[in-house]
Design brief:
Two copies of one chain form a homodimer.
Chain A: E1 8-11, H1 13-29, E2 33-34, H2 44-52, E3 58-60, H3 63-70, E4 76-82, H4 88-95, E5 99-104, H5 107-113, E6 121-127, H6 141-152, E7 157-164, H7 176-197, E8 205-208, H8 211-216, E9 225-226, H9 236-241, E10 251-261, E11 266-270, H10 273-276, E12 281-282, E13 288-289, E14 291-297, E15 300-302, E16 309-313, E17 317-321, H11 324-329, E18 335-340, H12 343-349, E19 352-355, E20 360-362
Parallel strand pairs in A: 1-19, 2-9, 3-4, 4-5, 5-6, 6-7, 7-8, 8-9
Antiparallel strand pairs in A: 1-10, 10-11, 10-18, 11-17, 12-13, 14-15, 14-18, 16-17, 19-20
Helix pairs in contact in A: 3-4
Chain lengths: 364, 364
């Protein structure tokens, strides 16, 4: 076991590589271009595991992240977040070095950057297939045409295709049928756009995101590209949704036990909202929880049910429901491993990872 | 107005200094030793504003934070978090330089460090006056005596007093009477301990925490020391509880507008769970929200009601309820200011602050 003295986010490299391989294989089997989302890990080191498996196109969610990965020789990057027109300087810096794609859903955004972007950039038009966060309704051809007209008249701008993120698949907890219905909704929105525009733009790409539908669905006809992110780590939210098995979760927070309250069935660990962030999920009986306790084993952890879970989090404290017997048995100074509810936000709250070898790896 | 290009946590120095002065004045008026909690800001620069007002004793929540502030010449530090027995090396490093107080609620924790701590350290015994997170029941004299016996027999250990954090005051949303009842409960737990032990330990300190009771209560008889933390910034959760006015909130997140959906009454900003963390509060009608929009003015912001609030957060996106008219009026590239729900976790999610002068200040 790795020696830890404070809350530390452990990464099981084997499980991670297995998850990446699963992405690569599934994309290949379905003739899909894989463009994994790197916001989940934001780490050069973990990025190299994808590269080893032949991945050379990536997705990020900010220009800062694009800059960070460009510095590590990634040469084809899509920023899958609405174009922030205030970051012209970063765009020019990155677009000079790499093939950079940006995302828009309004003529206004393009008008604001026209004449200021000095390098060739690609543009995806974002489509909203039901999530209602960002993107145009697939039927809003009027706005799509206005955007295309603006892109066409600018020599440095190239229309790349239509991109969507079916984030409402996250609400389909445990319901495989619902995830598949979100996936059908996505295809119903995107395929007609492909059919309409493919003759005008023969290289156009239909790009789809989200880990749940990519994990669960089996028919990707009409989709060209996928951008799973969370899948590299997975987490309890994904397990709850039905995207993964618990033993595919590739990260766990190691937390020191600092206090014991067997009469309350609880222990308290060093590890709170500052480390986990505050997303929660639910136990089968409806109890809210912020993470589940796994069992340390020689080469990592066993994700099997322990009955122990994070009942609540304050800034630095994690209150663990342990049951009387387990609370008595644990000692102050023991390290327990906690599977997080939301890998992306937990990883963002920490500033580095620890591999099971003990090596610390950095992230943005 | 400060020029921003990405989500940035703005600190209004004037409001901060006013909040610090409020702490200092209230502590002085009530004959209380002020030992403010620095976990909220975790910044040398902001620490200097307290120092300018005569503060020389501080509270932190980790040994890492103790190390960070010791490096900035703070010489009297209490770590108000259950002793993490795995951090002996840090304890010895810090205790060699500063007057360091640790916190315990079990003989087990002391037994684990006895003989390993090589410098003089103070110990507070943590008492639980009703929050049920950490600490001993005030009536648990048996355990208290065991801890005292262990401290007394170790030359390097000094018993400092009893410490409590009435965190359940946070649940007393909007109910002044409930906050005062939490405060009474605290005194009912702590004062008998003082009376019982003061002859044996004439210098013992009764230390009380939490911003809500310190902000609202008026009678601190029997309490010697207070440790307000959040009060330096305040936030919407504190405003909801009734600890502060909205215009006392001293931080706001500046977020670029990246997309507009007037037909949905919404805009989307760059600023999500990675920046705000995920604590929420409620509007008067019970609607959940993750922040409220303030109005930028020449020298900061006006916290008056705008009707605009953060409806939901994903990793990088903030979805703002703006109403049709305001959504239409805002332009892509505008910066809006958002008052956060939970200052401590929002500040921890960001890695630096921007003063209204534009100066960037660092934090741990």
């Amino acid at each position: 076991m790795v020696e830890l003295i404070e809350p530390s986010l452990l990464v099981d490299e084997k499980k991670c590589r297995r998850n990446i391989k699963k992405m690569v294989d599934k994309a290949a089997a379905n003739n899909l271009q894989l463009r994994p989302h790197f916001k989940t890990h934001q780490s050069h080191h973990i990025g190299s595991w994808y590269r080893n498996m032949g991945v050379d196109k990536i997705t990020v969610s900010s220009l800062k992240m694009a800059e960070y990965f460009a510095a590590d020789n990634w040469r084809d990057i899509t920023v899958s977040f609405p174009l922030n027109v205030l970051e012209i300087e970063r765009i020019n810096k990155v677009a000079g070095k790499v093939s950079l794609n940006l995302l828009v859903d309004s003529p206004e955004a393009i008008e604001k950057v026209a004449g200021k972007i000095k390098s060739k950039v690609g543009f995806f038009i974002e489509i909203d297939c039901g999530y209602r966060r960002t993107g145009l309704d697939p039927g809003n051809l009027d706005t799509i045409e206005k955007i295309l007209a603006l892109l066409d008249k600018n020599r440095d701008f190239e229309f790349k295709g239509f991109l969507t993120h079916a984030g409402h698949s996250y609400k389909a907890a445990g319901d495989r049928e619902k995830i598949l219905s979100v996936h059908r909704e996505t295809k119903d929105g995107m395929i007609p756009l492909k059919e309409r525009y493919i003759s005008r733009y023969p290289d156009l790409v239909i790009s789809d995101g989200d880990t749940p539908t990519f994990s669960v669905a089996g028919d990707f006809t009409g989709i060209d590209e996928v951008r799973p992110g969370n899948m590299v780590f997975y987490d309890l939210a994904q397990n709850f949704i039905g995207s993964c098995d618990k033993d595919e979760i590739a990260i766990a927070m190691g937390c020191p036990v600092v206090a014991k309250y067997p009469h309350r069935d609880e222990i308290v660990v060093y590890g709170g909202g500052e480390h986990f962030s505050k997303d929660y999920s639910f136990l089968p009986d409806g109890t809210k929880h912020y993470g589940k306790v796994a069992t340390p084993v020689t080469d990592g952890w066993d994700a099997g049910e322990t009955g122990m879970y994070v009942k609540s989090l304050s800034h630095d404290h994690g209150i663990i429901h342990a049951g009387k017997e387990k609370a008595e048995k644990l000692s102050i100074g023991d390290i327990i491993y906690i599977l997080p509810v939301h890998a992306c936000l937990t990883a963002a709250s920490m500033r580095s990872y620890i591999l099971l070898s003990g090596e610390r790896i950095e992230r943005l």
